[in-house]
C-alpha cells in the first residue's frame, strides 16, 4: 500500500508540473512547423481586445501577432508569450515568410500542428518555419490585471504583460494562507476552493512563473472594476539569464 501511494503521489506531482516543464521546453528548443495567415483580427482566444493590448504587444520589437498551435497552447497558458519565428521562404503561396520575426501570442490556431503559427495579417500560403519562445521584451513595464464578469463572490482575473507566463496564481486570504485560482481556456484565472467570500480588499496575489520565479503583488482597490486594465505595485518577473530573451 505504501509503495502504491508513493507511485500515485509521484504521478500526481508529474501531472501538476507538466505544463511548467512543457512551457520551459518552448524556450530551450526550436520547433519546426508551418507558417500561415488568417487575416487581421480584433480579438481572439486570449481575450486581448484592442486597444487594450498589453504594453509588450505594442513594443517596437514585436513585429507580428500570431495564433499559436493547439499542442503548444497548453489550454491558453501560452497566451501573451513571445516567440522568434524564423522563416525559410520555402513553401507554397504568394507571400513567403522569410527571416526572423518577433511575435506575440494573442490567439489559438486549433488546426495547427506543433511548431506552427498562424499570422494575424493578410497573406497567402504555407511556409516552412521554426519557432522558439523568448522572454517577452517588457522593459520596465509591470504585470497588469483585468477582471471580467467578477463580483464580491466570484473572481475571473486575467494576468497580462508578464515576461514569462504565470503558471500559478494565488490570492491571500484572511488567515494569511494562499488559495489557488484555476486556469481557464480563454486566458483567465477563476476562484477555486478555499477563497474567503465575500472578497476582501485590497487583493494580495502571489504569482509563480513557469521557471519558478515568484512575485507578490497587490491590486489596490476597494471594489471590483470589470473590463478595466489595473496595475498592482509595479511588479514583474525577473529576467532569467538561462532562457532566451
From TrEMBL:
SUPFAM superfamilies: Barwin-like endoglucanases (SSF50685), PHL pollen allergen (SSF49590). Residues 43-146 form the Expansin-like EG45 domain. The keyword Signal applies. It comes from the Eukaryota. Keywords: Signal. Residues 1-17 form the signal peptide. This is Expansin-YoaJ. It comes from Mizuhopecten yessoensis.
